[in-house]
TrEMBL record:
Protein known as: Chromo domain-containing protein
One Pfam family hit: Chromo
Highest taxon, organism lineage: Eukaryota
Protein's organism: Heterosigma akashiwo (Chromophytic alga)
Every Chromo domain range: 1-55
InterPro entries (UniProt xref): Chromo-like_dom_sf, Chromo/chromo_shadow_dom, Chromo_domain
């Protein structure tokens, strides 16, 4: 009988340009290529820079280490938690805030 072996997939933690760290998400390389045709080149560039920074193959060794971890053992934070805290409010559109509050109340 054929035994199905789960296929390992690569995921990248993406901090999207123009969005805060609250919107960072785990994405597959194929999904990134579908959104941005230049993603393949960006991934190669990142892998080369990472290999140079940490020594060849280090990021792959770390990836295998994370794969071996149980889900509850995985790190909770991949970047500084202060990145998602509001440091200051620069501007506020009171009409938009009132509208958002109204929509929220209607949804409850």
């Amino acid at each position: 009988p054929d035994v199905l072996v789960p296929r390992k997939e690569e995921f990248y933690l993406v901090k999207w340009k123009g969005l805060s760290y609250l919107h960072a998400s785990w994405e597959r390389p194929d999904d990134l290529r579908a959104v941005d045709p230049s993603a393949a080149q960006k991934l190669k560039k990142w892998q080369a820079a990472e290999a140079q920074r940490q020594g060849a193959g280090t990021w792959k060794r770390l990836a295998h280490k994370f794969e071996a971890m149980e889900e509850e053992d995985a790190p909770d934070e991949y970047f500084d938690p202060e990145y998602v805290e509001v440091a200051r409010l620069v501007a506020c559109d009171r009409d938009r805030v009132a509208h958002a509050d109204l929509v929220y109340r209607e949804l409850r």
